[in-house]
Amino acid sequence: MTDFRREKILVGGDWIQADAGGRIEVTNPATGAVIGTVPDAGAAETARAVAAAEAAFGPWRALTAAERATHLRRLAQAILDHREALAELLTEEQGKPLAEARGEVGMSAAYIQWFAEEARRVYGEVIPSPWPDRRLLVTRQPVGVVAAITPWNFPSSMLARKIGPALAAGCTVVAKPASQTPFSGLAWGVLGEMAGLPAGVLNIVTGSARAIGGELTANPSVRKITFTGSTPVGKVLLAQAAGTVKKMSMELGGNAPFLVFDDADLDRAVEGAIAAKFRNAGQTCVCTNRFYAQAGIHDEFVKRLAAATAALKVGPGAQDGSEIGPLIDAAAVAKTEEMVADATAKGGRIVTGGRRHTAGAGFYEPTVIADATDAMTFAREEIFGPVAPVFRFETEEEAIRRANATEYGLACYFYTSDLGRAFRVSEALDYGIVGVNEGLVTTEVAPFGGVKESGFGSEGSHHGMQDYLTLKYTAMGGLGR
Ligand SMILES: NC(=O)C1=CN([C@@H]2O[C@H](COP(=O)(O)OP(=O)(O)OC[C@H]3O[C@@H](n4cnc5c(N)ncnc54)[C@H](O)[C@@H]3O)[C@@H](O)[C@H]2O)C=CC1
Ligand SMILES: O=C(O)[C@H](O)CS(=O)(=O)O
């Protein structure tokens, strides 16, 4: 079986160490054991990766769309051929249950396959000319060298959502995965070799985020930055990239509300609540952060949600049957504890969970807290852990107002059996993604992106290509003589 655990970075087709020899340890969050090391590279190695991507850009964009699509189909097939090995490596470094890791790897292949198809639909336009001797053409061209910076919570599929459209459009890529989960990122280099990607088309560097990010945002050869991660880091990158006016797309933090109206199908709402809250132990940007239950069903919803939450199986991701794995690191467990303590100090009532789990230092019990109020920290801040606060509300207007009372605008969810309410509330909620009677909505065929301080740009769908293309208007004149 192919060993995807590469302990080198990929620059211009060569697997190399960091210039100064520095290394970063990678740990298994379920056990705390060191599972390997990767290079602690910095600006110099990144500059060489950008130069390699620049050199590869011309020949790569010169391929026909069909030729690039063929490479991408091979890449998607390589992922599927090695799904189990990739999933096991992902679980080992990130912690999520193996079933979820398999799902993430499958989603990576789906994004690459989708953009293999989109590669051949980068259409242009011919505009009716106001001049008899000119023809007006609009074409879409690849933006150039792309820098992709990704988080630890979906270390494979977050790269797929960037590498896929970038390569499909004719761009070349320098990727920086999160230091907590570098192996799933470096695995893309191995997969690219299997797919026959030419040297320099895909480069992957690990190391000092600040040094690598500093080079990627300042280097004029980088024409676009696509970032998925926290809003504070997104703001740093936006400021740093302003100096060279780069094209930017930002997939940032969230604070998802989940509204349950009196007329909801409660069984369906609880099923959706578990899916929307506890995937990846609550460590996703689209996880519900605030549950709002209308007064008429509030107590029954809390009761059923707590029962379903208490039934979730906590354990190492590699253990059969585990549904809730460890949090990414000790700081994440401590932050979760602080949020729960803050809530209980302010009147929150723990209905189930509310403490570390006996499975190990990295584990926290899936938790439901009732009597939540807007004074509690998790009303404003992303929990990024397995804690479900439940707020009570009276009217539809109140629910919409409170759901929108955040600087974030990524995902939201609500459950109702009333068709008129479904349209009214969906249109009134200020978010990029709305789940109506559904708690799991992510798919490669639909645009994924936020508004407000959850960022801008869309990933997936046919819209996902636009961020990697520029429009060119050509006036073809002198045709009258
Ligand atoms: N909108 C979306 O689709 C998603 C958003 N997120 C958000 O990401 C956060 C959790 O992921 P984390 O990896 O902890 O986020 P993070 O923002 O700390 O790190 C994300 C990436 O940025 C890098 N980074 C950090 N500081 C940097 C700097 N100064 N210059 C360049 N790169 C830098 C990190 O090494 C990592 O690769 C949460 O806020 C979550 O909501 C996570 C996944 C998806
Ligand atoms: O939160 C994330 O990192 C992902 O965007 C969640 S999803 O795309 O897998 O829904």
State the total count of DSSP E strands.
20
Would you tell me the structural class of the helices and strands? alpha/beta
Name given to the CATH architecture of the largest domain? 3-Layer(aba) Sandwich
**Average pLDDT, to the nearest integer?**
98
Bound molecules: 1,4-dihydronicotinamide adenine dinucleotide, ligand LO4QSZO4
Rg for CA atoms: 23 Å
Instruction: Give the distance, in angstroms, between the N- and C-terminal Cα atoms.
Output: 67 Å
Low-confidence stretches: none
Chain oligomer state: single chain
Q: How many strands, what sense, and barrel or not for the largest sheet?
A: 7 strands, mixed
Share of β-strand residues: 15-25%
Helix content: 25-40%
**Strand order of the biggest β-sheet:** 14-15-16-13-12-17-18
Query: What is the CATH superfamily classification of the largest domain?
Result: Aldehyde Dehydrogenase, Chain A, domain 1
What is the top-level CATH class of the largest domain?
A: Alpha Beta
The third-level CATH topology of the largest domain is Aldehyde Dehydrogenase, Chain A, domain 1
Could you say which overall geometry the principal axes of the C-alpha atoms support?
Answer: globular
Total helical elements: 13
Keywords: Oxidoreductase, Plasmid
Organism: Cereibacter sphaeroides (strain ATCC 17023 / DSM 158 / JCM 6121 / CCUG 31486 / LMG 2827 / NBRC 12203 / NCIMB 8253 / ATH 2.4.1.) (Rhodobacter sphaeroides)
GO cellular component, one term: cytosol
InterPro entries: Ald_DH/histidinol_DH, Ald_DH_C, Ald_DH_CS_CYS, Ald_DH_CS_GLU, Ald_DH_N, Aldehyde_DH_dom, Aldehyde_DH_Superfamily, Succ_semiAld_DH
